[in-house]
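Usage

Read records sequentially. Each one opens with the input sequence:
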Amino acid sequence: METNLFLDNFIRKKTSIGLIHKVYLVQLKNSRNYLASTKTKSEVRGGGKKPWRQKGTGQARAGSTRSPLWVGGGVSFGPKPRIVSKKINKKEKQLAILSALNLKKNNLKFFNDSFELNSYKTKDILTLLKNLKINTTSKILIILPKSTKKVWLATRNLKNIEVTTLACLNLKNLLHSETILLSKESLELINLLYEKIYA
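and closes with the structure output:
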């Protein structure tokens, strides 16, 4: 299947770099885990006894040895684990994926047969890719219409090959890939999912 046919029928040569940037930043933001944690004065162990009496010592008043002013005390306004979630509109996300596919039009590779393996061995997937004249050392994204256990197990040991389905397709995988491998069935499903955007 020709790349030009794919672009004309499905993407229609529309690319929005600004939208790709916006959706990509949202995806990076939502993928971050904010796990840094510090203890406040009430969470640090100890400090229950008042260090000295309130008046008459000549020193500043102190109520706990776990005050943030003391060594070994709590932390004022320190980081806490939190969830940060930014929303992106569904249509914006779909348009960004289509724009990314258009941006990567020279990296698209197509095959007509179903992407199936006879075994779970890594060498089988490498042989299949070589038969399709694909550089196995480049970053490869294989887009399948549905999850296949054999393909997933065969590519598990290869760090440069990513396997995904249309339901899990995201912008980061598309932008980071040097070669994008699509089946005829995946192509038809992309048309079915995204044809209403430009209608």
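Summary fields computed downstream for this record:
- The two ends are 23 Å apart (CA to CA).
- The first strand starts at residue 108 and ends at 111.
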